[in-house]
Model the fold of this input.
Amino acid sequence: MPCLANDRQQQGFTLLEVLVVVFIVGVIATMFTLAVGVAGGVDRELRQETERLETLIHLALEDSTFQARELGIRFYPQSYEFSVWSRGQIADPTDDTWIQIEDEVLAPRKLNKSFGFELEIEGRSVVLENSAKDVEKSYRPQIFIFSSGDISDAFVVRIRDR
Done:
């Protein structure tokens, strides 16, 4: 029985066919991962901003307690800032003012343009001014952090996607 090379039946796949299939599956998996990563980017950024704000509030609470000074937080539609109560001279109590904190940690911060704040104090929605210039003459924080470790009122801050 002579055996001819053309009469052999192929069993299985060649190495080239297997490599092509693995490459195609890899490309599809990469595209899916990138698509999910891009869609999850907004959620991830919102979560980061929320965690940053929460951490800064806790840090301000500790700073206020350790340094025995009164702090405040003021929110704007797309930013927030911390301020410190500056007591004036004993002879002139009207000189007491709130001064914006300029250090690296509690410096004013802005949100991404696609995000915005909503603030509720004691269950009531607060209308946020557009900038510090709107409240310059009578600047006053919306949230007070006392040196005793207390916070002025129950408040809820929401960071929303516009």
Observations:
- The longest helix spans residues 41-66.
- The longest strand covers residues 79-86.
